[in-house]
Amino acid sequence: MSLLHKILDEIEEVARLLCRILRLLELHHINGFTAITEQGAPMSLVPIAPGFTPGFSTTTIPTGTVPNPATPPVWTTSDSVNAPLQPNTADSTGLSTYVAIPTSATVGATFALTITYTNADNTVATQTDSFTIVAAPSPDITGFTPITQFA
Q1: What would the pLDDT profile of 59-83 be if each residue is shown by its tens digit?
Q2: Phi/psi of residue 97, each to 5°?
Q3: HEC profile for the chain?
């Protein structure tokens, strides 16, 4: 095999490797996020209320892209007093977080959650959505006092 053929074979191998690297990078290139929503089925959602810790999540755009585990997305809150973040350590993608609303939180206060991801090419994908803290629901009725006559 001539030197020229060896060089051409090496160039072809480098081109194959570059194509594989490009495909890997495309898996992690995130253009944006869907709206941030509270996690859970409608009947099991935790109130965004004092004393509760609701979970929030988003998905990536384009669909199917995933954050690089070495550089996960970053969540921030606009109100670290009434709506401090609590990481969701069970989510390895970083696409969800909890907000640990303290019992002292101001009902009616609004807060914004933002998720930001920096791609390998330094382009940034971000999404911000706002939420309002509502009054805590009434406790469940667990029983009754003895029935008495009133009339």
Answers
A1: 999 988 889 888 899 999 999 999 9
A2: -155, 165
A3: CCHHHHHHHHHHHHHHHHHHHHHHHHHHCCCEECCCEECCCHHHCCCCCCCCCCEEECCEECCCCCCCCCCCCEEEECCCCCCCEEECCCCCCCCEEEECCCCCCCCCCEEEEEEEEECCCCCEEEEEEEEECCCCCCCCCCCCCCCCCCC
Q: Global pTM?
A: 0.73
- The residue among 32, 18, 107 whose CA lies nearest residue 62 is 32
Q: Beta-carbon neighbour count of residue 139 at 10 Å?
A: 6
Q: Are 88 and 98 in contact (CB under 8 A)?
A: yes
Residue-range domain boundaries for the chain: 30-132
CA atoms of 108 and 140, how far apart (whole Å): 23
Domain formed by 30-132, architecture: Sandwich (2.60)
